[in-house]
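Proteins fold. Shown next:

***
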Amino acid sequence: MDILLLIVGLAMILIGANFLTDGSAAVAERFRVPEFIIGLTIVAVGTSTPELVVSVLSSIEGNSSIAIGNVIGSNAFNVFVILGICALIRPLRLTASNIRRDIPILMLVSLLLLLFVSDEFLHLADVNHISRWEGIFMLLLYGGVMWYTIKATGHSQAIDATTEEETPKKKPVAVWLAAVMIIGGLFGLIYGGDLFLDHATALAKTLGVSDSVIAITLVAGGTSLPELASSVVSLMKGKSDMALGNVIGSNIANILMILGISSTIRPLTMGGITPVDIMTVVLGSLLLFVSAFTFRKRELDRIEGAIMLLVYVAYIWYLIQ
């Protein structure tokens, strides 16, 4: 039964990702909004809902380790695994805006998290934690980052016939239908991801896999399944900007919005989360930035995608030792 429901959950994720991508692309085309912005906002926030639910509920219950660990694991998975897989399928083009603005913002946000949880190192407190005031600051910063990014991108970069993966012109999808596709796609991603995660965990326990391995792999990977599915489907449909925007937007939302909300509800202590875990997230954004200047410039190519995956494997190996 676990295997059957596992397959059902995976099918819902794939179908949901397809509807979400098509609906989001329809909104972008109708209102001439750049695909990257759609990926950064609608798709990114929507696919981050599982992380939001897990972290907020964990914060309410006083389980800070899960609240923070869920975000750290998800962000590492997003960059190293999702972008790694996408790059292996098809090299990801990095625009000048990605290099000058979007990726540096992700790096700064990751470094901000490292700063906030370095209380002991900076002799500010006896325990590393994210305070309620820091959480409020993160939420305000998230609003500012989204406003700045959307304004800076502007309508001048709206989708037009000059994109690489140009498609034949067709009748625009009705707004109500696009909205139904987005909502239905999010439902499939979230419910399917939850179904997949629950029964994958149950199956792992049945096979005798330890709780630590389940937490490191299935929980972080399970809550990131919507991002993985929507990014891969977007890429296969020729929407590479949406795939990249999804990952960057999700990682920014995970740190500033999800940890911001969680720590505002209740200050979060690091617990079993170490500086190495935070540094891994910072490393991911740094490698993404460096990839713009190596091998084929302004592109995350297949070699770099393979390196991303190997780094993640090495990180998981480090954790379970």
